[in-house]
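To illustrate the input format used throughout this study, we show a single complete record. The first block contains the structure-token representation of the backbone; no residue identities are included at this stage. The design step must infer an amino acid for every position from geometry alone.
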């Protein structure tokens, strides 16, 4: 009888130790998960503060090790950024897929290099035209990859056709007015409200591209405008 009670007590002790160990491990995992989420939110907030032009749909991913460890080391090998509501010069609501390499955190965060691909849909192009000339109706926007131009049906009933051409200069992309016709007849482009011959961004929009990026190429494709950007060593403003 005594031997049986001893075995029972031993089994109960083992069960208690196993239960306590499991509970401690569970608490550790939950705490680590909460810490990781907090770390990722902190990194995302710093990027959003440094580059408000990336918009409200900004999402940030940390490649490689845990963000909590990277944050503790104040060094992040790579940050992947995505946004579907960014602004690039005069173009609103563009899609951005970017990568930041070797991010060092501190009083002033630094980035060794940055690369990005931006897609401005025909809807984005239409919004840019409406912003530049609010009083002019824009019924449809299409692209012509063969000529590298953007065609917009403007005016009442789309009677006018505005032709835009993307221009890459000094690391920035602008939309130059290539021509304006109404009922097939050419008219001065200043009647469209673009005295300098180009569409300008909205008042108050950032003059520089986010994260120190510079445009390196621009292509007109069937779905819109595609821009490649790169950036060298730079600091993250506002951090």
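Output of the design step:
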């Amino acid at each position: 009888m005594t031997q049986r009670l001893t075995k029972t007590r031993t089994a109960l002790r083992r069960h208690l130790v196993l239960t306590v160990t499991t509970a401690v491990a569970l608490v550790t995992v939950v705490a680590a998960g909460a810490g990781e989420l907090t770390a990722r939110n902190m990194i995302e907030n710093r990027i959003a503060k440094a580059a408000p032009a990336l918009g409200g749909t900004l999402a940030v991913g940390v490649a490689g090790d845990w963000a909590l460890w990277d944050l503790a080391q104040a060094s992040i090998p790579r940050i992947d950024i995505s946004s579907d509501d960014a602004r690039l010069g005069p173009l609103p609501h563009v899609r951005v897929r970017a990568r930041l390499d070797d991010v060092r955190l501190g009083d002033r965060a630094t980035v060794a290099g940055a690369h990005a691909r931006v897609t401005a849909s025909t809807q984005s192009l239409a919004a840019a035209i409406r912003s530049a000339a609010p009083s002019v109706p824009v019924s449809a926007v299409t692209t012509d990859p063969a000529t590298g131009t953007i065609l917009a049906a403007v005016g009442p009933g789309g009677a006018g056709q505005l032709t835009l051409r993307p221009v890459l200069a000094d690391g920035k992309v602008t939309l130059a007015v290539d021509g304006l016709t109404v009922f097939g007849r050419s008219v001065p482009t200043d009647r469209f409200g673009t005295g300098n011959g180009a569409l300008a961004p909205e008042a108050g929009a950032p003059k520089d591209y986010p994260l120190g990026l510079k445009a390196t190429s621009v292509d007109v494709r069937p779905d819109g405008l595609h821009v490649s950007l790169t950036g060298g060593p730079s600091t993250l403003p506002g951090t």
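Structural context for interpreting the output: Residues 11-33 have pLDDT under 50 and may be disordered. The chain has three helices and 13 strands.
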